[in-house]
Specification:
Distance between the termini of chain C: 50 Å
Radius of gyration of chain B: 24 Å
Number of strands of chain C: 10
Mean pLDDT of chain C: 84
Shape of chain B: flat
Structural class of chain C: alpha/beta
CATH class of the largest domain in chain C: Alpha Beta
Helix content of chain B: 55-70%
Low-confidence stretches of chain B: 1-8, 74-84
Strand content of chain C: 15-25%
Chains: A mainly alpha (529), B mainly alpha (165), C alpha/beta (341)
Oligomer: heterotrimer
Number of helices of chain B: 8
CATH architecture of the largest domain in chain C: 3-Layer(aba) Sandwich
CATH superfamily of the largest domain in chain C: Bordetella uptake gene, domain 1
Order of helices and strands of chain C: HEHEHEHEHEHEHEHEEHHEH
CATH topology of the largest domain in chain C: D-Maltodextrin-Binding Protein, domain 2
Structural class of chain B: mainly alpha
Strand order of the largest sheet of chain B: 1-2
Largest interface: A-B, 69 and 83 residues
Mean pLDDT of chain B: 82
Distance between the termini of chain B: 43 Å
Number of strands of chain B: 2
Helix content of chain C: 40-55%
C-alpha cells in the first residue's frame, strides 16, 4: 500500500517537474504570494481573476496553478501581521499578537524566518498526511457530527477565551462580544435575520475580512497616529536578528510540531477554516508553556504554532475536496468549480481516473512550498526595510490597501463601511484596556457552537443526552468541564493568596501592558514635538 | 482638559469602571434585541435564545469588571508615571483616518476608483501633523496611480474608474 | 437616423389643421425616435464590455454556469464579457443591483431559480422578478436527486416512504439552506406523501451532502454532479430524480413520477435577465446568441456533465415560465408553512 503510493508519487513528481507544468505552478505560487501580501485580497479573488486563463489550458497545469495561488497566498499574509500588526488575512490575526511585539523588539526578521520554516514543515507534514492518510482522515471526518463539533468548538472557546494577557474577565467579555457579532445574519436553522437592522448586506453576516482588518488594522492606526514615527525607528535591526538562531530554532521546534498536529486534525473537520486552528494552536501553546506571561509580548512560540497550524490545515483541506468532491471551504469550492469546468469530476474516482492530476498535484505542493521558501527568505530583508518608512506615509497607504482589498472580496462598498465601524469599535475597546483578539475568536467559533448545538437538538429530537452518549463528544465535554473547574480552582486560589497579600504591606499590582511603557528597555516610540 | 487630566480620565479605576459599564450597556442592548426574536427553550432554541443569553452574560461580566476595578485608594499606590504617560487624544488623526474611509465609501459610489483612492490617502494623510499639503498630494497621487495599474488593470478589479451612483 | 418627415404646404389650409398636422408629425417623430434610437443601439450593440452579475460567490452553482457561458457569449458578441460576483442574501443583493442598473444591455444578471422563490420568502426585500427585469434567456434546468444513506434498508422511493412512516417521530432530511430548492423539494415530498420528517438545514450543499453520507440524516435532495461519483462508489444510494425524464448521468435512476410520486418535477433553473426597460432588439440579440451557444458544443455537453438539461426559450417564453414558477414556489412555501420574513 505504502509502496504503491510511493510509486505513484514518483510518477507525480515526473508530472509536476515537466517544464510546462512547473512554469504554471511557479506562476501561481508567485501570484498567490504577492496577493497574499495585499491586505484583504485573498486567494478567492486571485483565483477568480485567473480562472478564465485556465479555460484554454490543459487540466494539469491549470489545477497546479490554482492550487499554487491558494497555498502561496498563505505565505504572504504573515508578513504584514508580524511587521505592521496588519493581518492581511484572518488566519494571520493571531500571529500579530506576538509577531508585532517581536518586531518592536527588533526581531521582526527572526519572526519571519521562523514563520517560513514553520510553514514549510507544516505543509510537508500536511502533504504526507494527504498521501498516506487520506482515507483515514475522511472516515474520521464523517464521525464528527454536530454533537462532536459542538463539544470541540466549546472547548476551543473556553480555552481561547483566556488566551489574551491581562484581565481574564475582560478577555472573556470580548469573546462574548465576538459571539454577538457572529450572531449577525441569517439564522441557519430558521432563516430569520438577526441583528441586521434592515441592511440586506448583513444577511450573510459580517464579513470576516472586514472584521479582522478593522480590528487589527484600523484600530492600530487610530492608536498609533501622531504617536509613532516609524514602526522600526529607534531600534537598530542587526544582521543577527534577520535570521533565527539555533537556540530560537530549538525553541520553536515543539510549538511547530504541536501547531502542525492541530492544523492537521482540524483539516479533516468540515466547515472549519484555518482561522479557528490558529486560535486553538495559540491557546494550546500558552497553556502548555512554562512561562505563559511571555505570550503577548513577543513569545516565539506564539508565532510559530499558529502559522504552522494554518499551513498544515491549508494542505489537508484538499483532502475532502479531492477525495470526495466535497469542498471544505469557499476557496476549495472554487477550485472544484474550476475542475468541473475542465470536465473533471473530483471525487473518489479521481485518483483512479485522473492519476496524473492527483499525484501531480501532490508533488507540486512540495515543489511549490520549496519555491515559496526560496522566494521569501531573501525577501525578508526587503520587507524589514519597509519598517523604516515613516509612519506618516505608511498608514495612509495601508489604509488604501485595506479599503481596496476589502472591497475586492465581494465587490461591496458596504463592507468597507464595516471596516470603519469595527475600527472605531476596536479603538474604543482598546482605550478601555480590552484586548481585541478574542473578538475574532468569538466571531469565528460562535456561529459554529450555536449552529451545531441546535442541529444536534434537531437530529436527536430534543434529547440532550446526545452530547454524552457519543464517545467523542463525551470526551470533549469532559475536557470542557475539567477546564472550567481548573480555571475556577486557580482563580479562587489566586484570590485567597491575594487577600493574604493585601493584609501585608501594600504591594503594587503589576501594571497591565497597556498603561505602562511597553518595555523599559525599549525606547519609546512617541514622536518628539 | 489639560494633558494630565485627559490622561487620568481613562486610567486605572475609572477605565475599568466605565469599561464594565460599557459592557453592561452592550449586553442589555443585545438582550433586548434578542428578545424580539422567538426565544424557545433549551432543547428547542429559537433564534432569540443565544443572543439573549449572551447579552445576559455580558451584563454579568460588565458588573464583574466594574466591581473588580481597583478602588481609587489602592490605585494611589501605583507610581503616577503610569497615568501621566497616557498620551492625549489625537482628534485630528482620528477624524482624518475615519474621514478617509468614509470618503472612500462615498466617492466609491459617486465618483469611482480614481477619486476614492485619492481621497482615502489624501484625507487620512492629513491625520499626521508632519504631513504637508505637498507630501499628502504626492502620496495620494502615487497611490492612485498604483491603484489604477495594479488593481484596475492588472488584477481586473470590478470597480469603475469613474462612475456615478 | 432617418425618419420620414412629411411636410405639407401650409398655404391654404386652416391654421388649426396645420397645427394638428404639425403636432402629429412632431409626436410621431418623438415616438419613433426612441424606437429608432433603440434599433440603432441594437445595431451597434455591444460596443464595449458586457458585465454579467452573479449573486453567488465564485465556485457556486450559478457562478460556474456564468463562467461556462462567458466564452461562447464573448465570442459571439465580439466583446469581452466579465463576471462580477456580488454574493449575499440569497442573490437578493445582485438582483437589486441589476434591477437598478442602466437598461442598455451592458449589465446582465445570471440568475438561479432563487429569483422565483425569493418573493415568497422575502416579500419586502426582493425585487419582483416579473416587473424589475426583462427576461432574456433560460438556458439550463437542473433537477435534484433524491439520495439516502446506504445503511438505510430502503431501495426505492416507496420503501423510503414506508420506512419514514413507520418511525414515530419521523426521520430527518437535510438541505443546503432554509428556502433553498432542496428544502422546498423536501417539503413538497412530505406534502405529497403525507410523511413526517424534520428539516435540518445546513450552510450550503457540501455539508448537506456530507450529512447524508455520514448518516446524520436519512435523505436529502441534492444536485446531481456532486452526488454522482458518490453514488457510483456506493457511499450514497440514489432513489429518483425530480425531472420529467431520466438523467443521462444516471440512467438507471427512475424519475419521481416513475417511482410513484407524480407532480414532483421541480427543477432549479439558470437564466440570464436584463434590467426592465432594456430595448427589445438587444434582448432578442442576446437571446439568439445564448440559444445558439447552448444548442451547440461544447456548452451543450458541458451542461449535461453538470447534471443540467440545456433548454431554449424565447424571451416571452421565459417570462411565462418565470411567472408560473414564481406562482408554484409561492404555493409550496405556503403549504409547507414557511413564514416569510
Amino acid at each position: 500500500m505504502i509502496g504503491h503510493s510511493l510509486a505513484d508519487l514518483w510518477q507525480g513528481f515526473g508530472v509536476a517537474l515537466e517544464w510546462h507544468n512547473l512554469m504554471w505552478s511557479f506562476f501561481g505560487v508567485l501570484v498567490g504570494n504577492l496577493i497574499g501580501v495585499l491586505p484583504g485580497m485573498g486567494p478567492l479573488s486571485a483565483i477568480s481573476i485567473l480562472l478564465p486563463l485556465t479555460y484554454t489550458m490543459h487540466p494539469v497545469p491549470a489545477i497546479l496553478m490554482l492550487a499554487g495561488i491558494f497555498y502561496g497566498s498563505q505565505y504572504g499574509g504573515a508578513i504584514g501581521a508580524i511587521l505592521l500588526n496588519l493581518p492581511c488575512h484572518p488566519p494571520h490575526a493571531v500571529t500579530c499578537l506576538d509577531g508585532y511585539p517581536m518586531t518592536r523588539q527588533g526581531k521582526g526578521g527572526t519572526a519571519l524566518g521562523i514563520t517560513m520554516i514553520a510553514s514549510f514543515f507544516a505543509a510537508s507534514v500536511g502533504i504526507i498526511v494527504m498521501i498516506f492518510a487520506s482515507p483515514l482522515l475522511v472516515s474520521i471526518a464523517f464521525k464528527f457530527g454536530p454533537a462532536e463539533l459542538f463539544s470541540i468548538m466549546l472547548l476551543g472557546l473556553l480555552a481561547g477565551g483566556t488566551m489574551s494577557s491581562g484581565s481574564a474577565l475582560k478577555g472573556v467579555s470580548m469573546t462574548v462580544i465576538g459571539l454577538l457579532i457572529g450572531v449577525v445574519g441569517t439564522d441557519v436553522n430558521t432563516g430569520v435575520m438577526r441583528f441586521t437592522f434592515g441592511f440586506n448586506e448583513l444577511a450573510d453576516g459580517v464579513e470576516l475580512v472586514a472584521l479582522a482588518l478593522g480590528l487589527f488594522g484600523v484600530t492600530e492606526f487610530l492608536r498609533n497616529v501622531n504617536r509613532v514615527h516609524a514602526v522600526g525607528s529607534g531600534v537598530k535591526v542587526r544582521l543577527r536578528d534577520m535570521r533565527p538562531s539555533l537556540k530560537e530554532l530549538r525553541q520553536a521546534f515543539l510549538p511547530i510540531v504541536r501547531g502542525t498536529s492541530v492544523g492537521t486534525l482540524f483539516g479533516a473537520m468540515p466547515g472549519t477554516g484555518p482561522t479557528i486552528t490558529t486560535f486553538i494552536a495559540y491557546a494550546l501553546e500558552k497553556k502548555v508553556s512554562r512561562t505563559p506571561q511571555r505570550f503577548g509580548n513577543g513569545a516565539l512560540e506564539g508565532v510559530a504554532a499558529p502559522e504552522a497550524s494554518s499551513h498544515s490545515k491549508t494542505q489537508v483541506d484538499f483532502i475532502p475536496t479531492m477525495s470526495l468532491g466535497i469542498p471544505g471551504d469557499p476557496v476549495m469550492a472554487l477550485i472544484l468549480g474550476a475542475l468541473l469546468i475542465q470536465g473533471i469530476q473530483p471525487g473518489p474516482q479521481l485518483i483512479s481516473e485522473h492519476a496524473d492530476i492527483f499525484w501531480g498535484l501532490i508533488a507540486s505542493f512540495w515543489i511549490g512550498n520549496l519555491l515559496l521558501v526560496l522566494l521569501n527568505v531573501p525577501l525578508i530583508q526587503v520587507w524589514v526595510k519597509v519598517l523604516q518608512v515613516p509612519y506618516r506615509f505608511l498608514f495612509p497607504a495601508a489604509l488604501f490597501f485595506i479599503a481596496v482589498g476589502v472591497y475586492s472580496t465581494n465587490n461591496s462598498l458596504f463592507e468597507v463601511g464595516e471596516v470603519l465601524v469595527f475600527g472605531l469599535m476596536g479603538a474604543v475597546f482598546v482605550a478601555f484596556d480590552f484586548p481585541v483578539a478574542p473578538i475574532l475568536l468569538g466571531y469565528v467559533l460562535g456561529p459554529m457552537v450555536e449552529e451545531n448545538f441546535r442541529r444536534a437538538m434537531l437530529l436527536s429530537h430534543g434529547d440532550l443526552g446526545i452530547f454524552v452518549n457519543q464517545p467523542i463528544s463525551a470526551g470533549f465535554i469532559v475536557a470542557c468541564a475539567l477546564l472550567v473547574a481548573l480555571q475556577a480552582w486557580f482563580a479562587t486560589r489566586a484570590a485567597i493568596r491575594r487577600r493574604g497579600g493585601q493584609a501585608a504591606a501594600a504591594q503594587a499590582q503589576a501594571p497591565s501592558p497597556n498603561d505602562a511603557p511597553r518595555d523599559p528597555k525599549r525606547p519609546t516610540l512617541v514622536k518628539q514635538r | 482638559m489639560d494633558e494630565a487630566g485627559a490622561g487620568r480620565f481613562l486610567s486605572g479605576y475609572r477605565r475599568d469602571y466605565y469599561g464594565g459599564a460599557l459592557m453592561c450597556l452592550i449586553g442589555l442592548g443585545a438582550a433586548a434585541q434578542g428578545l424580539q426574536y422567538s426565544f424557545g427553550s433549551l432543547t428547542r432554541m429559537g433564534p432569540g435564545f443565544f443572543p439573549t443569553c449572551l447579552g445576559a452574560i455580558l451584563v454579568l461580566l460588565g458588573f464583574g469588571i466594574a466591581a473588580t476595578a481597583k478602588r481609587p485608594a489602592l490605585r494611589d499606590g501605583v507610581p503616577d508615571g503610569a497615568a501621566a504617560e497616557r498620551p492625549r487624544p489625537e482628534w485630528r488623526g482620528w477624524f482624518c483616518i475615519l474621514g478617509g474611509i468614509v470618503a472612500f465609501v462615498v466617492l466609491g459610489k459617486w465618483g469611482g476608483l480614481l477619486p476614492a483612492s485619492f481621497a482615502v490617502t489624501f484625507i487620512s494623510a492629513f491625520g499626521d501633523r508632519d504631513n504637508t499639503w505637498k507630501s499628502a498630494l504626492v502620496l495620494a497621487t502615487t497611490i492612485t496611480i498604483l491603484a489604477v495599474v495594479v488593481f484596475w488593470w492588472a488584477l481586473q478589479l470590478q470597480f469603475p474608474l469613474l462612475s456615478w451612483g | 437616423m432617418r425618419y420620414a418627415m412629411r411636410r405639407r404646404r401650409p398655404a391654404a389650409a386652416p391654421t388649426t389643421l396645420a397645427a394638428a398636422v404639425a403636432s402629429f408629425v412632431c409626436a410621431s417623430c418623438v415616438l419613433r425616435a426612441p424606437a429608432a434610437l433603440a434599433a440603432d443601439a441594437a445595431a451597434h450593440y455591444p460596443d464595449h464590455t458586457v458585465r454579467v452579475v452573479v449573486g453567488y460567490p465564485p465556485g457556486g452553482g450559478a457562478d460556474i454556469m456564468a463562467r461556462l457561458l462567458q466564452k461562447p457569449l464573448s465570442a459571439a458578441l465580439g466583446q469581452s464579457v466579465i463576471i462580477e460576483n456580488r454574493p449575499g442574501a440569497g442573490q437578493n443583493i445582485a438582483d437589486a443591483y441589476v434591477a437598478r442598473a442602466k437598461p442598455d444591455g451592458y449589465t446582465l444578471l445570471l440568475s438561479s431559480s432563487a429569483l422565483a422563490v425569493n418573493p415568497s420568502l422575502f416579500p419586502t426585500l426582493s425585487a419582483n422578478p416579473l416587473t424589475a427585469f426583462e427576461p432574456v434567456a433560460l438556458f439550463a434546468e437542473s433537477p435534484n436527486l433524491l439520495v439516502v444513506n446506504p445503511k438505510l434498508p430502503v431501495d426505492s422511493v416507496a420503501a423510503l416512504i414506508a420506512y419514514e412512516k413507520k418511525r414515530p417521530e419521523g426521520g430527518n432530511f437535510s438541505s443546503s439552506g432554509n428556502g433553498s430548492t432542496q428544502h422546498l423539494c423536501g417539503e413538497l415530498f412530505k406534502l405529497k406523501t403525507g410523511m413526517k420528517a424534520t428539516h435540518v438545514p445546513y450552510k450550503g450543499s457540501a455539508p448537506s451532502l456530507a450529512a447524508v453520507i455520514g448518516g446524520d440524516v436519512d435523505f436529502s435532495f441534492v444536485n446531481i454532479p456532486s452526488a454522482k461519483p458518490l453514488v457510483l462508489q456506493h457511499q450514497l444510494k440514489a432513489l429518483a430524480v425530480t425531472s420529467t425524464h431520466r438523467s443521462p448521468l444516471l440512467p438507471d435512476v427512475p424519475t419521481m413520477a416513475q417511482a410513484g410520486v407524480p407532480g414532483m418535477d421541480v427543477a432549479a433553473w439558470y437564466g440570464v435577465l436584463a434590467p426592465a426597460g432594456t430595448p427589445a432588439p438587444i434582448v432578442a440579440k442576446l437571446n439568439a446568441v445564448i440559444v445558439h451557444a447552448v444548442s451547440g458544443e461544447p456548452l451543450k455537453s458541458q451542461l449535461v456533465n453538470l447534471g443540467s438539461d440545456p433548454v431554449t426559450y424565447t424571451p416571452a417564453g421565459f417570462h411565462q415560465y418565470l411567472a408560473a414558477d414564481t406562482q408554484r414556489w409561492a404555493q409550496i412555501v405556503k403549504a409547507a408553512g414557511i413564514t416569510p420574513r
